[in-house]
Amino acid sequence: MNSTISLPWTIKISSYLYDHSLAGKAIYPAAEILVELAGVVRRNFPQAGIDNLTEAFFPRFLPVPANAQSLAVSVQMNAVENNGIAASLLTKVELKTGNISRVLEHGRVKFSSLSGNKVPVPPFSVPEKLPGECIAVPPEVIYRELVPFGKSYRNITGDLTVSRAGAVACLSGGGTGADDDLLGSPFPFDAVLHAACVWGQRFGGIVAFPVGFSGRTIYKKTKKGITYRGQVIPVQSGEKALVFDAWIFDLQGSVCEEIRGIRMQDVNKGKMKPPDWIRATTL
Q1: Would you place residue 126 in the very low, low, confident or very high pLDDT band (cuts 50, 70, 90)?
Q2: Average pLDDT score over residue span 21-27
Q3: 250: helix, coil or strand?
Q4: Which of 12, 78, 131, 139 is deepest in the core (most CB within 10 A)?
Q5: In sequence order, what are the residues at sequence separation of 6 or more whose Cβ sits closer than 8 angstroms to the Cβ of residue 226?
Q6: CA 177 to CA 17: how far, in whole Å?
């Protein structure tokens, strides 16, 4: 495949997706965009590997209209190095001025096979231990005041322990109708982003949303109905953007996923502020 292939695609909207909302409007999750792209790649290139994801970017939200049954999108794909496939999820909007349309990109990523069977050793010894002064934030507080999503996306299930060194928590594999065959359940990955968001509110002073990552390697697919442990560590902290590495473990301590270079950004340009109680006294 030397040229770009563009295909129409229909995303089926399940009711649980409306729990992923911002200011009362449902937003299609980045984790689910990756699942949709993986499904299109697997359908059109059955031999392509999808367990190693690199250079992910989510340039703009994909809104989900009220009571929608489906979303009409298109997916562009082209071959990249290491026998990989690059895929982008796009929508077309009609502009109000004349018969002009504009193509919007909502997510893109490169898929390839995992090379070798070596599982990484995280840069810490025990996943549930954090150095430094810690606070514990209960999940009901997280989802009421910091990451106000609905029931289906409340998958930090125990107290989130947060220090300057990072954040750790128990994560749920979820229990709704999401696909957990292609990339594993999207819910633990999504919940790790919630942990990074809370860290950003405490030590970065911003409400940051995921805009991409440099790499995500899936060693063992997470499954719905199963409990996991997640840990994030800050790699870079700035006024407008934060970068994290993250790991998802099973309860025996084996690495299920490693996510590198998660980029979190204040996409609302300061319109959303962390509550005073979560902010560290010195940022």
Answers
A1: low
A2: 93
A3: coil
A4: 139
A5: 172, 173, 185, 250
A6: 10
Mean pLDDT across the chain, nearest whole number? 93
Domains assigned to the chain: 5-112 (3.10.129.10), 135-278 (3.10.129.120)
Residue 219 has pLDDT above 70, yes or no: yes
**Is residue 118 predicted with pLDDT exceeding 80?**
no
Residue 271, pLDDT score:
86
Local structure of residue 204 (DSSP, 8 states): I
Residue 156 DSSP label: B
Identify the helix (H) or strand (E) that includes residue 195: helix 186-199
Which of 252, 253, 233 shows the shortest CA–CA distance to 243?
233
Q: Closest by alpha carbon to 232, among 241, 222, 223, 243?
A: 243
The one-letter amino acid at 62: L
Lookup: tokens for 91: 């929508």
In sequence order, which residues have a C-beta less than 8 Å from that of residue 139 and are 6 or more positions away?
154, 156, 157, 158, 159, 160, 169
| Distance separating alpha carbons of residues 125 and 246, to the nearest angstrom | 14
Q: Measured in whole angstroms, how far is the alpha carbon of residue 45 from the centre of its chain?
A: 24
C-alpha 69/C-alpha 29 separation (Å) is 16
